[in-house]
Amino acid sequence: MNRNNVYILEDRGLLYINGDDAKEFLQNIITNNIENVSENRSCFSALLTPQGKYLYDFIIIKHKSGFLLDCEKEIIDDLYKQLNLYKLRSKVEILNLSNEFVIANLNKEKFLEIENSKNKEGFTIKFREDPILLDPRSKELGARLVINLEKLYLSLKKLELEVSDVNEYYNHSHELGIPQIDTRNLQDKIFGIECNFEELNGIDFRKGCYVGQENTARIKLKDKLNKRLFAIKVLDGVLSSEEITLENKNIGKLLINSKNPFALLKLENKKFNFDENLKCGDANIKAIKPSWI
Q1: Which residues pair with 126 in a beta bridge?
Q2: Which of 149, 115, 153 is nearest to 132 (CA)?
Q3: Is residue 197 a contact partner of residue 203, using CB atoms and an 8 Å limit?
Q4: pLDDT confidence of 293, banded at 50, 70, 90?
Q5: How is the chain split into domains, by residue range?
Q6: 244-289 pLDDT tens trace
Q7: CATH 3.30.1360.120 applies to domain 5-175
């Protein structure tokens, strides 16, 4: 990705969690440790089912007296409802700011040119009073600018950035093995730890209890992680089935069938052979080996 390119992530939405109990409220339900989130540090986290299955993932950014949740816009209404279910009598206000703010992604090298920046996942600074952070999942995803729509293009001009095709960004994310589109297809079908949240800095195994913590910790401590979510490359043909096979043996399931597909694949002795040619319906495919493996 070119250092002067910027990608407007119009398919991302923002919730704002505010109120006297905002920190405690989030700490009790999310997979990461909200105590580590500050003006200079953002984090990646998730909300799981009580059984530890995937529901939603998001980036958490400190904003004024509360926290912004940067998530896929397609699921934001459902996430809003889910958070309100957990709110009960907590002194918490949940607002959908998706129509007021936008997320823009820029190159890591460009971010590091900005004063006070650091080459550290999740590191957060302000640019013209707006938060800009190196992606907490992987530095290779670049940085995210959270900004009011009215200020967007002036800030991009000051940064000397050129708006580019957002598909370049999502293709890059796919190559890194990080799903961001159609994540609804993962809901309740895969354990959070199988989504590689540990490798993507999304789980804190040292914090207290949260929703789904028991099964997540059990899989980790008993070394029971036998499947992982991997990006899929189509060599030829069409993805016409959910079943993925190797020499007619079922080894996984296609979960996200889109331009950038992802599948849950079985591990053998905790490893996966990325050189194998696999079948998925009429398609010949390969799993893409992520840099964090």
Answers
A1: 131
A2: 115
A3: yes
A4: confident
A5: 5-175, 183-287
A6: 999 999 999 999 999 999 999 999 888 899 999 999 999 999 999 9
A7: yes
